[in-house]
Amino acid sequence: MYRRLYTPPLPRPFKYIKHMLLILCCVITLRESTAQPSLEALNPPLVSFNFVANGTSLTSDADYINPFGERYQVRTLMFYVSRIRLSHSVDTNTGYDEEYHLIDFSHAASHTFSVKAPKGTYDTIQFMLGVDSFHNTNGAQAGALDPLHGMFWTWNSGYIFAKFEGLWARSSGVDIPFAHHLGGFRPGEDAQRLVLLTLPPHRIIEVKEQHNPRIEITVEVSRWFNGKHALSLAEYPSVMTPGAKSMLVADNVSTIFSVQ
Amino acid sequence: MKDFSRTTQLYLKGILDVLSKESLSIPRGLTTNSRPPRYLMVVGGLVLFGALFAMTAEPLRSAHRSTLPAGASLLQWETPPGFPPPVYTFASNPLSKEGFELGRRLFYEGRLSKDGKFPCSSCHQQFAAFATYAHELSHGFNDQFTTRNTPGLANLVWAPSFHWDGGINHLEVQPLAPLTAPNEMAESLENVLFKLNQDPEYRRMNAAAFGTPEITSQSMLKALTQFMGMMVSANSRYDQMKRGDIDFTPEEQHGYEIFRDRCATCHPEPFFTDHSSRYTGMGVTSRDSDLGRQRITNDRSDAYKFKVPSLRNVELTGPYAHNGRFQTLSSVLDHYRFRIGNDPLVDPVLTGGIPLDEAQKRDLITFLRALTDRDFVSNENFRDPAHSIKCRADPIRCNSEPHKMGLHR
After folding, report:
1. How far apart are CA A259 and CA A125, in angstroms?
2. What's the whole-number mean pLDDT along residues A131-157?
3. What ipTM does this complex have?
4. Is there a single domain that holds both residue A10 and residue A74?
5. Residue B64's pLDDT is what?
6. pLDDT at A211 over 90
7. pLDDT at B24
8. How many distinct structural domains can be found in chain A?
9. pLDDT 10s digits, B69-103
10. In a mutagenesis test of the B interface, which of A6, A12, A33, A132 is the best target, namely the one with the most B β-carbons within 10 Å?
11. What is the DSSP letter of B174?
12. Strand duo A176-183 + A238-239: pairing
């Protein structure tokens, strides 16, 4: 009977169990509070790219005339976008959304995607055109950066930041192919370009519940040829490696975007 | 510091006590007596707090780090004695038996090529230290020659770049080059993945190695990297001598001394390459106008430069040079002895060539043969898995008539 009633004292370590639990709770609480502030919003804003040539909607079977009077057709048009950041005035911004997006003219689904943004009003969008040095030098990637998309130079490791292919002819005569594959991340060859677009007053977006704001970015293909430098197809029918030509074309590509 | 470690010990002792039966019978009085002073409790609490904080922080930061799927068995990486830490560490590609075996099968897989005839192993033959035996250039799709001489494969995790021109910056993406080159395997990545995903056995192996049955470019490349990365050659006579297991013959020792005096600037131990690109006075011929490193850097001063090849297993990897122009080690050395003296563009360390008399040349070659790693070229783990299965079933026929067993490549 006596033995039954006897409960042995708690072994020593159990005496501190309350302290340990308290410490664990503190750790968890503090860990939560130091975590990066979340960029998620209930209704993430959508960014979409609308392709036009000389102001009219771009199609792959139509002829267009570039600023040098050269007739061309578009077969392929693809580019990488990342480090998207929405901001308002100088000190309010969403932080960088580091996800990579491959915008492919031939795949409409790739033209629109959502970006992470907390509630707020935004009048500026910026993004990086291209792929940063880290992702160019760290082996097999997945998702938008999967080499399966054909945007990777297999013989000279590195991503093709933007690809523009099609047919062209001077004024009349036989169509011949042109191809601009630009990229380059090494010092002296950097073809990444920062694009910063100010939203006109009627396009300023507000991220809030029960509302899907949209940022419509116009891609004016004709500026690929003369946005910053005059690059006629006669002179630049083919750009296939990182280097000086890639950087010239990248300058132009950084000007094809606008919000109207 | 003392307090910290003592408190930690006390906590550890406490935990150990729970595990031992004796602690259950400790009279209450005694435990009260051994209670540590209050300040130690506080310090101990802080230590525990810090430790837990650090422990919980790590998984958050490395949320994207790949982990082994359940059931996969970890393969332990071992850096051979005297070798520096690897450049490629498998940190984002944890080594497993399953990953290695998938990579091994892919390395010998004809379906990686357009017509099924050109697996990686068609150019990288184990008995030739993973170069192509007796070929200046190797064969690719549709009876074409490869652009350059196939290099041997070994110790790849220590290499900062790959290919003769150093154009590949990471081991994982190297296979994309031969796979898509029209004169090599001539396939598209998309089609390779389509073919592999048709095969239930590959889907099973991919699930075992990476957790999901779907073979992706990433899982294929990471598996190949596990296989190729494990190709470590570190058991030649040279390595055995370095470890003190054997002594060099007088000829080998003499050759080693000449080597260290005349060759080691570009071919330093333990990899026998400094991984740099240099112009070694090959000249430009109508047959070979390969720009080499310039093709990668766009820098004219890099014209005709090629990477210094490793000399490990060099006895087996001939013919030599990027274009395979030297059939024998003797002819390579004669090039350095006699032919480059007058070339103004030759790498400065080679100005005037490398003087060697006949006895020195002979002993130098004897030393170079001591870099052959027989264990590496006969290692069962790197063999065609199909070969291993068939040979276990019929070892005598396997050795005498391999072609009749469908093992001829």
Report:
1. 10
2. 97
3. 0.81
4. no
5. 41
6. no
7. 37
8. 2
9. 888 899 999 999 999 999 999 999 999 999 999 99
10. A12
11. T
12. parallel
> Pick from B31, B57, B216: which is nearest to A12 by CB?
B31
pLDDT digits (tens, 9 = 90+) for B266-300: 999 999 999 999 999 987 776 678 999 999 999 99
Over 80: is that where the pLDDT of A21 sits?
Answer: no
What pLDDT is stored for residue B18 in this prediction? 42
Residue A123: which domain range?
40-258
Q: What share of chain B is helix, strand, coil (3-state, %, to 5)?
A: 50, 5, 45
Number of separate domains in chain B: 3
Helix or strand run (H / E) with residue A101: strand A101-104
Q: What is the mean pLDDT of residues B5-26?
A: 44
Give residues 213 to 232 of B whose Cβ lies within 8 Å of A. Answer: 216-218, 221-222, 225
Residues A23 and A84 in one domain: no
Q: Residue B294 is part of which domain span?
A: 237-375
β-bridge pairing A176-183 and A193-198: unpaired
Helix (H, G, I), strand (E, B) or coil at B245: coil
Q: Token digits for B50?
A: 């810090």
> How high is the pLDDT of residue B22?
39
SS3 at position B101:
helix
Shared domain check, A77 and A10: no
- Residue A225 backbone class (left: φ over 0; alpha: ψ -120 to 50; beta: rest): alpha
> Which residue in B has a C-alpha nearest to residue A155's C-alpha?
B177
Q: Are strands A193-198 and A124-129 parallel, antiparallel or unpaired?
A: antiparallel
A7 in the same domain as A82 = no
Which of the residue ranges A215-219, B139-143, B340-344 would you say has the lowest mean pLDDT? B340-344
Chain B residue numbers with beta carbons less than 8 Å from the beta carbon of A20 are 48
| CA neighbor of A164 nearest in space, from A53, A258, A82 | A53
Query: Which one-letter amino acid corresponds to residue B298?
Result: N
Contacts of A74 (CB under 8 A, 6+ apart): A53, A58, A60, A64, A105, A164, A165, A166, A221
d(CA B198, CA B188): 16
Q: Is residue B408 part of a domain?
A: no
Q: Does B78 lie in the same domain as B49?
A: no
Are residues A179 and A220 located together in one domain of the fold?
A: yes
**pLDDT above 60: residue A168:** yes
